[in-house]
Amino acid sequence: MPVKSGKQYIERINSQSVPCWYKGELVTGKRSEHLAFKGLMETQAQLYDMQSDPLLAGKMTYESPVDGKPVGLSFLPPTTVDDLRKRRGAMSVWSNAHHGFLGRSPDYMNTAIMSFYTAADLLNELSPQYAENLRNYYAFCRDNDITLSHAFIQPHASKISGQMDATEDAIAAKVVERTEDGLIITGAFMMATQGATCDEILVYPSPSPAPFDDENPFAFAFAIPNDLPGITLVCRDTYASESRFNFPLSSRYEEMDNLVIFDHVLVPHDRIFFAGNEEMSSRLFSGSNFHIHAGHQVLCRYIAKTEFILGTLQLLTDTLDLASEAHVVEKTARVLAGLESLKSLAIAAEAGAIPDGRGFILPAPQPLMAANILYPKLYPEMIEIIQLMASSGMIMVPQEEEFKTDAATHLDIYLRGTDMTAQQRTSLFRLIWELGAGSFGGRQTQFERFFFGNSITVSNRLYSTYSGVDTYRQLVSHFLANTHR
Amino acid sequence: MPVKSGKQYIERINSQSVPCWYKGELVTGKRSEHLAFKGLMETQAQLYDMQSDPLLAGKMTYESPVDGKPVGLSFLPPTTVDDLRKRRGAMSVWSNAHHGFLGRSPDYMNTAIMSFYTAADLLNELSPQYAENLRNYYAFCRDNDITLSHAFIQPHASKISGQMDATEDAIAAKVVERTEDGLIITGAFMMATQGATCDEILVYPSPSPAPFDDENPFAFAFAIPNDLPGITLVCRDTYASESRFNFPLSSRYEEMDNLVIFDHVLVPHDRIFFAGNEEMSSRLFSGSNFHIHAGHQVLCRYIAKTEFILGTLQLLTDTLDLASEAHVVEKTARVLAGLESLKSLAIAAEAGAIPDGRGFILPAPQPLMAANILYPKLYPEMIEIIQLMASSGMIMVPQEEEFKTDAATHLDIYLRGTDMTAQQRTSLFRLIWELGAGSFGGRQTQFERFFFGNSITVSNRLYSTYSGVDTYRQLVSHFLANTHR
Amino acid sequence: MPVKSGKQYIERINSQSVPCWYKGELVTGKRSEHLAFKGLMETQAQLYDMQSDPLLAGKMTYESPVDGKPVGLSFLPPTTVDDLRKRRGAMSVWSNAHHGFLGRSPDYMNTAIMSFYTAADLLNELSPQYAENLRNYYAFCRDNDITLSHAFIQPHASKISGQMDATEDAIAAKVVERTEDGLIITGAFMMATQGATCDEILVYPSPSPAPFDDENPFAFAFAIPNDLPGITLVCRDTYASESRFNFPLSSRYEEMDNLVIFDHVLVPHDRIFFAGNEEMSSRLFSGSNFHIHAGHQVLCRYIAKTEFILGTLQLLTDTLDLASEAHVVEKTARVLAGLESLKSLAIAAEAGAIPDGRGFILPAPQPLMAANILYPKLYPEMIEIIQLMASSGMIMVPQEEEFKTDAATHLDIYLRGTDMTAQQRTSLFRLIWELGAGSFGGRQTQFERFFFGNSITVSNRLYSTYSGVDTYRQLVSHFLANTHR
Amino acid sequence: MPVKSGKQYIERINSQSVPCWYKGELVTGKRSEHLAFKGLMETQAQLYDMQSDPLLAGKMTYESPVDGKPVGLSFLPPTTVDDLRKRRGAMSVWSNAHHGFLGRSPDYMNTAIMSFYTAADLLNELSPQYAENLRNYYAFCRDNDITLSHAFIQPHASKISGQMDATEDAIAAKVVERTEDGLIITGAFMMATQGATCDEILVYPSPSPAPFDDENPFAFAFAIPNDLPGITLVCRDTYASESRFNFPLSSRYEEMDNLVIFDHVLVPHDRIFFAGNEEMSSRLFSGSNFHIHAGHQVLCRYIAKTEFILGTLQLLTDTLDLASEAHVVEKTARVLAGLESLKSLAIAAEAGAIPDGRGFILPAPQPLMAANILYPKLYPEMIEIIQLMASSGMIMVPQEEEFKTDAATHLDIYLRGTDMTAQQRTSLFRLIWELGAGSFGGRQTQFERFFFGNSITVSNRLYSTYSGVDTYRQLVSHFLANTHR
């Protein structure tokens, strides 16, 4: 089966049966009709449909090596710079469609599983079966256009001192039993985004501080359907609302986050990529160049989102007649300079692509890592710019229903903007409110800040690529050595 | 009638009949039972009850000059430094009760009307009747513990060029007719906070750019019951929810903002403080020292809010075991230094009090204006600190209902914190989410940023108090003049 | 005559006779032996010699269209993307040689005169002779490897109100007489950097606010030898010192700034590029794409300078054993992310080159303008990082002479660093002191901040390139228009 | 002998004979005539003379308990709030005289030795003799108006790993021998400011990481004349110049920093305050409340310096006609808000004074520690404001000698400012250049940033005073506990 349609995407999810708690109640009925999932599923269905759209298919797909049927380009393991450009083309089509607000649009996890696939050889060392499992799983995802979620952050409780000491009592996710059929896993993961609206979950815990031994119960990676027995999902409250006018962003892009609980879940052997080896956990991760391949996808998203915010700023400037204010010029130019930087980093990442040593090609890591350092600062800064420009006007914004009341004739007069009707202006300010003060925007800001880890982690990633580079040190040493003529 | 009880406060509001639109429907039934007003009214009723609480009454009231009955201390026109201290005492009791989250706790507008009262003499110039109206109105508010709202920001549309040119078509609020019974007013005001839960509204538009003439239809100030014929209120969507666990802040402190529409409202002559004179609009405002008296109240609120955020940070630090991290020490110390500054500015404002030239005393303006410059930066900075410390953990926070489901036993294990049960920790993170990512917090940040105007306006207020001060210029000129020995 | 040698460069300057005041005395004798000019001239001579270095000549020169002799690549008017790359190659060789500390290395003004040349056609409108003059002058500079300075900022006094009103009394530079031999010019220019160590000065005042008329005496551009009768130069104090150990930067890179006074200077007709037409002043400037061509050169300089600072930071980190401190990782990563951005912007500027409509090619303006917005913030931030990391250690730094005293044995022990001798470490800290606290560094910071104008001016440049771009506005308008399903 | 005169101050220093290396040469001759010390000594002499000035003596001195003769108020151990006010009065007179630019004006070390004196009792535990030594030394300083320097920072080399391991080889300052006459000390200290222009040096190394034992050779504190045999001073290069016009700040306020080398210096027993006990090193330091008493002095300095910078900004605004620019209003208001905060913190520190438990009174620690957190950020921010406002105009500033040349008539025209002659304006810009770009200003910025330690250290000081405070934690815990009605 090749790329799936939006309809297929929805049907598969609706047919799942995992227990999923929302505000004290089990989600029953079709997920695609539940407020917490509806808008996102509609948006995502549109994304999937684009892959079969005759006008876009050429840009969005390639032929599966298995049967030649069209599969999503974000699954393509790049071997040439042109592959990287094609991948960016496809990923940008999606990013432009969701304006960068989906952190987990399908290309993200497609890229993730592709990146692990490129490093499958590493697993041979532990067992050729593991390598085979990973390759098969990648092909399965690609050829069935599987929608994946990702579970990796463990609850803070798993780190509370004392609780790590005894393996028995450890809260961290672990193998509690090994059976003929597979491993029995117990534990929990915070923040599996779209956990309730995916087909499968990739589980790959961050390395544990547990003692290093051959049968380390905390070290593993696997992927399974998200509705195996023993799995329970818990939702946070949704930020979504029905009305697209009132909640233009959350009504389309609200991605539910889930706490995923594993209570003696049996993971079949053929779905295990490795187990018991702490060192492999790190090696596979870094060997897959996950942050680099994914960083390429993320940069497409950054660019689309920045463009959307730029357009919002421009409309706000227009309707408030601010174009000639010096501080508005400076603030907007800050956004423009950010946008130019992001676009340039993407060009440079492709222009500087390097072989990964296993037959694939890698975008230049450093421009991508630089983007991961810049954007967690740029995004909140852009939101602050919107807040400063919109000032208190972004708070007292009525809802669309008000325009159908007796007060409407007044609103039509008092709420109009320069070159905008009152409804248009209100619609713009609903958007600005969602970005700059609403709950959806609050999560987006937090999400961008911590997307690839906290500031130290992200800094370290770039820093370490320079740690072996002596060019600049030597340049200054040489300069200083010449201080005597 | 002396200070009112919480019950009286609620009854008065419930008995009002102004058309108030919420999400396309007229609010009917008791406001105190409507989700959009309920929590706030309950909180505010508690504040009013404190004035009659035997343990607090002495600190919260003084004797009305009319009949010796206890009236609220925030109505007291200060004539001594001790009066300032008493005022601060009473205002702090309230601020500590609502932790600074109510921008319009009763003392704010009580102080406002008191400040205008201290400048009533200025109105004699136009007409002794105006001065008398203002004095009477102040006494009426004080002796009946009137809950006031404030309407002053006009819609942006009133400034769109072209529309100001002809008085006839002007969108800005204006006198459209003068009758024997009073003035007929048409126009609209954004952001009358608590407009739907007050007794009366003080209307005092910001000075208009209209031509200066004796019968300027845009210049006036008056106060009226908020349910006179011709008045319509429009609400934004509420951020409040029922559950105190899930929404600890908005369930108590959500103050609805209203668009207030005047459509040919008759304002009786005895409620008009001046009309037709643009210059008086500015003179009464600055002569009343509104920003200084109100700044004193606001500073009490800043301090209480900062203490609450500090406590939140400390609990977060405890439960995440972060006390020994250098960046946490630095961030917390930033909050502490801010808190110490605010407290010191309050002490200095009272220590440096000056006569206002009309028999009253004024806290030193400059420390208060400094606080109004510092807090709009400090508050967002503190919220950012919370966001940076809580990281992604503040997003995936379940609701209280989840603790009553089958998943509860898992949550009890996986969501616990250091020295906190899972429910306690979740409760803390709900608070942090509301402060740092939810809609309620989004409005708070925006509100603090623009409370007394934008950055330029607030800066100008302090700057202008120094513009006549040559001390420092001369000190440097003198220093430079000594550059030849 | 083709590219000149360092020796020729020095001889030409030494043979000049313009009155030049330094600390109350006329500079007499060879400029190359005067402390204020010596280090710079030595450095600059090395740059000129590189053009004839057999190993570098191919990368630094091209054949003059006049006689096929090698002339400097920075004079090349680019017509292909490859030309842009070649230009960057040559400019980077020089930038790497002076590590970006020379704001006026020869390629800067070479590029400037080249850019004006590309727009010479515009002058035909006023007079074919002007166009011819400009073309001839460009060829003269190219074929004689002329060292140019640039005078354009007028004294603040020229703007003091009242003094602009009457042309007669105006302080701004102006034509005071027109004679058969040329124009007689009187006025002054601040900040002609390297004014005392150039062959010629290009004079092109910023547009004046003077009334627009055909014989506007304030509008002109010309180039002349810097020692015509009537010219006087005034120096600021030098920051340079003899010792390369003690003052590693200023002993090499201190570029003297000059106030250039014109007192009835006769500018010959064939050196005038236009005169009397205010509008042409703006049109030639923007038509020449000066900021874009020069921006390309400047970006080479930014990159070299950032690399030098990075190396300095790395050595500092090494010698203070700070590599494992989280804040050092974050700070260094900030520099790395900046460096990656600058490099990417250069790649993108070339990848996106566009025709200029007159047969030449232009690097993409927007990445270059973005760099001009980013660097004035990045540079001071990098210096602050150095200050924060070096802390008080960068203050108490002895001089090289101390290592020859009786105290030397003590210094050898007490001043050593990790993997560095006391002399090496001291040498590094002298560099850090010059960058972060000395006068040379103080000027560099100020220079980078204001290189292409203040923040508003530089922001406006990028902002205006987007002002006609509706793509993003429409994208958001379209998004909002879809808010009703 | 009571307070000394400026003349006595100079004579004492001129009579000293310690080997002091400056740029490879021993300083011989009178220090008061050497460029590196001259301006500072002249300024400091003026400060000392103020104590005997009949108009100021009452404000600057109190009666010595020994003989009733007038001694400096900064030596007064405060026992009442009024004492604190008197101390501030005297310290402010000096701060206003040197505009806060002297980090080591005499009151700083006078206060330091006073603070150690208040904790002398602690030393009884080790030996009553130590306590007696400290009390005697304090009285000696007070009654002889001793000018003290302070040595406490050890070279970085003392921390390089490996070198700490063996006591024998340790680079850190240590007791190398104990004799009948005293202790023999070897080691070095960085940054003894004014080390070459003091009478005595207080040596009190920061606690060493050495093993804790009773005869710890690294733990001690003592005070000695700065010219005992075995002491050598090494200077950095001076930033001072002769001309007050050209270098208005450094010609008066340049305080030389010294590296102080101890090579087998014999410290007499009666000058030792403790030795051999690492724990006492910390206890005496914190018990003396050094940072609090000194913080009170430092705050006087902060206020005077901020006022001077404010005046400079005002003059700059005037001469550049910038008063109406919004960004100038905002920037200046930032300085004003800082100044108001500092003044308020001083008022609050005194208003909240507390007993120290040993019969003395202590200014409230927290406002002072808050000031120590705020100023290291405020000062560089103010300097940046000056840089941003003065822009490139602060670079091309001629020297006073230029006004005596043939170019003077031109300068008089071209360099004048609004309401300023060219000389006055140039004089102002020399000051601005020294503050914002010169070496003197570079040291000042670094000095203020690290005055009381780096950001973590200073933050920790305030943080730790709150660590036992549960008020705010409990307030929020209580709030959360009420989330169920």
UniProtKB/TrEMBL annotation, chains A, B, C, D:
Domain HpaB/PvcC/4-BUDH C-terminal: 283-480
Gene3D superfamilies according to UniProt: 4-hydroxybutyryl-coa dehydratase, domain 1, Butyryl-CoA Dehydrogenase, subunit A, domain 2, Butyryl-CoA Dehydrogenase, subunit A, domain 3
Keyword set includes Flavoprotein: yes
Alphabetically ordered keywords of this record: FAD, Flavoprotein, Oxidoreductase
Pfam families referenced in this protein's UniProt entry, alphabetically: HpaB, HpaB_N
Domain HpaB/PvcC/4-BUDH N-terminal: 6-273
PANTHER family recorded: 4-HYDROXYPHENYLACETATE 3-MONOOXYGENASE-RELATED (PTHR36117:SF3)
Official protein name in the record: 4-hydroxyphenylacetate 3-hydroxylase family protein
Native species: Paenibacillus illinoisensis
Organism phylogeny: Bacteria, Bacillati, Bacillota, Bacilli, Bacillales
